[in-house]
Amino acid sequence: MIRIVALTPAGKQLAERLQAEWPEANKFEVRVDYKPKPFAESVQSAFQNGDWLMFICATGIVMRTLAPVIQDKYQDPPVLVLDEEGKFVIPLLSGHEGGANEWGAQVANRLGAQLVMTTAKPYLNPIYTLGMGCERHCPLAFLESLMLEALAQKGLTPSDIHSLNSIDIKADETHLIALAEKYNWNFNTYSAQELVPMEALLSTKSDYIYNTVGVYGVAESAALLAAQNETGIDPELVLNKIKNAKATVAVARGFVET
């Protein structure tokens, strides 16, 4: 569940706007909590329950309230703080590991707000790229369902994605091309030689894939290289590769200045 906590009338208005516009509302219940009572107990309970929390109030209030229940960045749910005018979005807790940085970037983009990311790369906007590998003549349904699952895991939508990417032996893969066309993405392919420099950033390495195509992982390598090409800086994996019976997909990210 996503909980948007507001303490002022202006904050409540912003919260209701976000609730109405949030594209993932069909996957996550989005609830507005206006002046919840008792405040500390309600917020702490939601935090311990693993709810994603968005506060429209002062940062100090949030920190004082959550301090008794904070554990670590690997267990705590993501927490954002916004000002009531919706000008600034701060990923406060579980920025990278918990997904608050990506979530904050999405909220900032929809509001036209400034993302204040204090963990790393402040004042930059993310560029998300998809990498996919698949069996020859993989049906579109396998590709699309896996892609949508990957995006849902990170709270992303197809409109957040810049491009679809793979290895050059898939340049004529009919349904990869069809998937890119359906969502208006560029479809890029790269040679094994071009993908090799991404090896150090891979989450896992498959000797089987290496012996077959010359790189240790197609989906992650292609996503990473595309993000690097688009931003000119070192990329990072947002989602390590996941797979179904016929395909693999990974999500990478780079940053550009606003």
From TrEMBL:
Pfam families, A to Z: CbiG_C, CbiG_N
One BP annotation, GO: cobalamin biosynthetic process
Domain of life: Bacteria
Domain Cobalamin synthesis G N-terminal: 43-120
Domain CobE/GbiG C-terminal: 129-252
PANTHER family assigned: COBALT-PRECORRIN-5A HYDROLASE
Protein name (record): Cobalamin biosynthesis protein
